[in-house]
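Section handout 9: paired folding examples.
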Amino acid sequence: MARILKKEVLTPQIKLMVVEAPWVAKKAKPGQFVILRVNEEGERIPLTIADYDPTLGTVTIIFQEVGKTTMMLGELEEGDDILDFVGPLGREIEERYFGHVVCVGGGVGIAPTYPKAKALKACGNKVTSIIGARTASLLFWEEKMRSVSDVLYVTTDDGTYGEKGFVTHVLERVLKSEKVDLVVAVGPVMMMKMVSLLTKDYGVPTLVSLNPIMVDGTGMCGCCRVTVDGKCCFTCVDGPVFDGWKVDFDELLARQRTYLEEERRAVDLWLTEKAKEEVSHGF
């Protein structure tokens, strides 16, 4: 079990937890993830490591409450235990000097963008970061991203904070005006697809971090398969970082929608059971 040492509500739907997991923190690298299970009856879900401290033995995770498991996780408090917390899993991002790197984080993808930008900055790269969300209430970690960036741009789709528009609008402006050696993008699948299409036009190598449906996280189940350069890859062991130009995003988008109805039913059933329990306890 892994104890929750700190819990922070970043936005109404997005929560941060600092978890006591020295065995994970000791070996964690930027780009890797963990698989966790809230309780004995719970499903296994992957969450990218947002930060880690090997000295303190802590791992930071950030998640958005969109399904039953993330909602259950969000109800845990400081001092509670997460039943399973396995990692670090997956391949880390290559930490070396590239030159000028642009890091793009969309929505909750801002969280895993941070350790990548931090590591690349530590290697001497010039780091330009672009973070964005649908609206101001979904933005977080602006100052942390600023601390590891030479330049930071902030966007919102509706213009409630920063520049109005998508992260790709700012990215194209940067690509037109400056020499860029690498782009790293983390966020919704559609965002990563559009970033990759844009950077391919400009001939700038691009890395994306994928987060498909996943079960075991060790390459056994095949649930997280994705087509890269015409070949079947398992995100959990071959990724999660891939060459964005080579990812079949349309296939990935379709696979992400496979269990939407089941996910909705699971949430509805859980909320109904929770309401009944609260009534029975007189809440």
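Moving on to protein 2 of 2.
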Amino acid sequence: MKRSFFGVIVSLYLVTGTVMAQTVTLDYFFNHETHQTKGRQTERFHYLWEDTANSGFSVWGDIFRSKGATLSRLDTAPTAANLKGTAVYIIVDPDSRKENPNPNYIQQADADNIARWVKAGGVLIMMANDSANVELNHFNVLAAKFGMHFNNDMQSHVIDDAHFENGAVLISNNPVFKTSKKAFIKDACSIGLSGRAKPLLKAANGTAIAAITKYGKGTVIAIGDPWLYNEYVNGRLPAGFDNDKAAADLAVYVLSQCKLHPNRNMVN
């Protein structure tokens, strides 16, 4: 007997958990670094979906795609209109003047817009860096909305490739990282927590370097380092570290937490 179109759609939902792809949007506004190519052309780089060098997020982007997500970028300040349709919004390493002579700092209005979007069901990932390589003052305007504060310090300092173990993070019975057991996170800032915010990952000394909280219908995850860029998920790490599994775990988790209608008015 032929199945109805409605029956096919219901079956697809039961098998995959969703029918339409969820949009994962990466910020390109607060992080806007450039460098000169060999041909002396100015080129964007650092934590971009399309950057396939060690500095990019192309590997993590491919993992999101493999889970059925659609990738997007946001080149302007976040608003209710341009966040509409985004299920996951990722902000990584906002620029300081060291990285960009005219940085786009996170303003109170930006924090308010993002907080309203999260409250309605969005999933926000904030990735900082050690304090020498990120602008924390304005980033903390946003983090404070969720009971989080990126501290002006450096945890899990790793001098060189001979000291990978200094960046080891052991993972057990974690609600987000269910298959990864030993991650590598180096030179991260710690995260102060208040209210409902809880530690998600800790450095060897017990300080929180990743945190999670619920906010309205949405979810916020903060990490003290860009962490999952290509250099540390492409197999370069020694045996025993499984950042590739951590990247997949995080992708699966955040997509499962999305409460917003997927793929509506996708940002191009």
